[in-house]
Fold:
Amino acid sequence: MSDVFGISLSALQAFQQALAVTSNNIANANTPGYDVETANLTAAVPQSYGQAAIGNGVDVASVSRAFSQTAENQLYSSQSSLGQLNALQTYSSQIDDIVGSTGGGLTTALRSYYGAWSTLASDPSSTASRQAVLSAAQGLAQSFQSTGSQLQNLSNNINTGIAADVNQINSIASSITSLNQQIVVGTAQAGGQAPNTLLDQRDQLVSNLSQLVGVTTTTDADGAMNVFVGNGQPLVLDGYTTQLTTVANPYNATQLEVSTSTDGTNTISGSITTGDLGGLLAARSQVVNPAINQVGQIALALQQNANSLQNSGLDANGNFGANLFSATGPTVSASSNNTDAATAAATITNVGALTADNYVLSYKAGAYSLTDATSGATVALTGAGTAANPLLAASVGLAIVVTPAVPAAGDSFLISPTSQAAGSFAVALTSTSQLAAAGAIVTAAADANTGTATISAGTVTNAANPNLLAAATIAFTSPTTYTINGGAANAYTSGGNIAADGWQVQISGTPATGDVFTVQGNVGGTGDNRNALAAAAAQSQGVLSNGTISVNAAVSGLITGVGSQAQQINTSQTAQTAVNTQAQSAVQSVSGVNLDTEAANLLQWQQAYQAAAQVISTGNSLFTYLLDSINGTYT
Amino acid sequence: MRVTDLSSQTQFLAAVQALQTNVSVTQNQLSSGLAFTDPSQDPVAAGEVNNLNTALSQSQQYQTNANAAQSSLGTEDNTLSQVETQLQNLRDLVLQANSGTNTAQNLSSLASQAVQIQSGLLALANTQDGNGQYIFAGYATQTQPFDQTATGATYAGNQGQQMVQIAAGQTVAVGDSGDAVFNQIKTGNGTFTVTAAAANTGTGVVGATTVADPAAYNGGTYAVTFGAGGTYNVTNAANAVVSTGTYTDGATIAFDGLQVTLSGTPAAGDAFTVAPSTNQSLFTSVQDIVNALQSPTGTATQSTQLGNSLSAGLNNLDQALSQIENVRAGVGGRVDTVTTALSVAGSQQTQLQSSIASLQGVDYATAITNLDSENTALTAALQAYTVTQGLTLFKYL
Structure:
């Protein structure tokens, strides 16, 4: 009889435990990272009765959690990709908003600016029209500045984000290390039984970590988990945590990089490509910095074009026009790894050849080399790097002077031709009279000319020529030859260029011997609008990309480029969200709690418990019956 | 596949969120009337719309410029028409003076009328526009271009010509320099002049002069010298005789493709010089006429000199009139160009606006249909959730 009670008791205990597991499942139905658990029952070792062996009840052999490392790994990887895209999307959509349909207000400001020049061209002596040009120029400068500073803010936000991510990664890594210890100890104490709750917690931490940075994991025989980031850099290994740190970029102290050592020698930014951290780094290099450079490139092209027009024309006081806009040109920063104090300076030789990329100048084995920091392509260099013979990178429109011209071997410099231009773009003129609306020279045919030749209005080819404004006489010594200021005779071709002293004119038609044409400074030319006309026409004039793209087209290109990038990132993010949902479902499908299943289990264990209790009741009846029978005999 | 409560919950929320985003985007489109507000929604169209907007603002600017050009050209034409009237008056006056029936008093009164016209012409040449800019000063619009002198007028402007952009790649001159209008006027008949020598004693007066054969005229200078009995010979610059003959009153002397008609009787030794035309200022020509009218006419020789001066003056006035007419014709042509540009700009703007609208404007029919279907989808998702939420075994325990 006693075996009936023993067996039933073991069943009652086992079913109670099974009911507890089910209750725990129901309780944790909504707990993140909880893996559904199952009480694994096993029949107790049977007792042998001679020929027959009768079962000895039931035992709970173990409580196991439903877990698939494959599904988890897939989830980690999809979370890392999604984390990266989320960070990218955050920044690309902000740039999308900043640039917007109006290029950060640039398009409207540009229209006002060129329109104001055109209005001035219609009435070049009007002070009001001059004021309108200056105001429009200021509006344009504000648009560049605000776009530049908004983009710069994004760059600062990225730094904050990187620092926050690194802190969180370190904190999670420490928690994993401490859970590892508990798991190793707990497993040993429970005789090899895994501490499911701790495992769930650790997996949840790794899952959280995978949102910040792409991870790979391995598990040791004792249950400890090793976590690696990037290209296998250990974060948690053999009970130790490697703390990540943020260090300044060797070329640019305002940009944070991720390193595994505090001295910055072991920078791993390049190998972190996924997770929120990877997304932030990518947003900086692929989204924010290129946008800053592109706006800067437009600013420099506009500045150069406007200033050269100003310089070649005359203002209302009859002086050569001063620079209209100022903007910081190329900046050069020496690497913090350089072993000497060599400095370098870069200037723009050809704004049309300028690109929106940054360049790295390195000095190795006695020779300079220049590489595109974005594409890694080598840029052809000529020259020696001295002030007299600077390094010329003609294909990208830069000249570089290094001091001393022979720096220490291994020195490198980062050249950012356009990164500062937009934020520093400003109007350099203060007075409306300084706007050069007039051309510098004026031409005339002498009234006494008897030929039918006419002279063009002339253009300035070199505003720096000291004799540009000096009166020059083109005299025809015969219908086919002419002299300039009494010099040597030149052959005349109708419509051909005649140039001297920084100017160029064309004479067309049939001149007569003795005909005289003059070229001289445009004295009192307050009604001359030629320079204003040229300034207005610059709107459709190609100034970027070797004179093929106008400023406005470049802004349109910026809008389309930024929009396309944001659109593409949005699309990828939407797709990755779906992939991630799938990965989550896959994990949930294995490890999640289904309440219907639990309800069924509850009923199952309840009924089993009732049955076992009924067995005890039956055993009790049998026992009572037996006792009663004995008692009855006795009495 | 095993579905768990947590995953169905998250999936439902994600789906509802996506649907709500769609509804909000469509709602935005409908309320703003724009198909996109961020470039990422349609990057290519966003860039294109910017280009079109710039083209539109340029076209509007060209329109403004063209209107300003029209007004400037109008001022110029108006001024030139007054110049023409004055010149016509002066011409009538010269014809009257040249009729040979005038007393010295008459001539003096005509002279003072001529002086009036002279100052009127000078004022017209110094016309300022509404902004106080001299319209015939070239680029030097703040310098008074013409100043009266004893022999005519000096010109202080230059030969600059203000251009205004009225369409892409099209500029039009909105003025002419005073030099081109008033100073570069050919003397004589436009090809050559005939001048009586100051020492002439006869009554020979130069009449009509024509170029009969332009190919035969080499642009040279000739001297027509009279001998006794009306004989004359014509010598060229190299002193070679090119023609000889005997002159009768009113006869035409022809040589090297030129024809010169004289009237009166030249005395022996009288000479006339035939020279190619040169540019002369209108004001010099007018001053010459005034001088001639003011000169004494007591003797036959003086009358002859007056006749010759007035005849030369008439020639010069005719040249001036034709010059002004030419300039006015040019101005009229430019006004036509501007008018055409204005009408082209108008239709271009309509075209650009409709292009912008088709790229940027929302298609209401599509948007409303979208909103409707998105709304339906959202409602269905919400209903499905409430239905499936009720499906749990616990309800039946």
Observations:
- Chain A has a mean pLDDT of 91.
- Chain A touches chain B through 80 residues (CB under 8 Å).
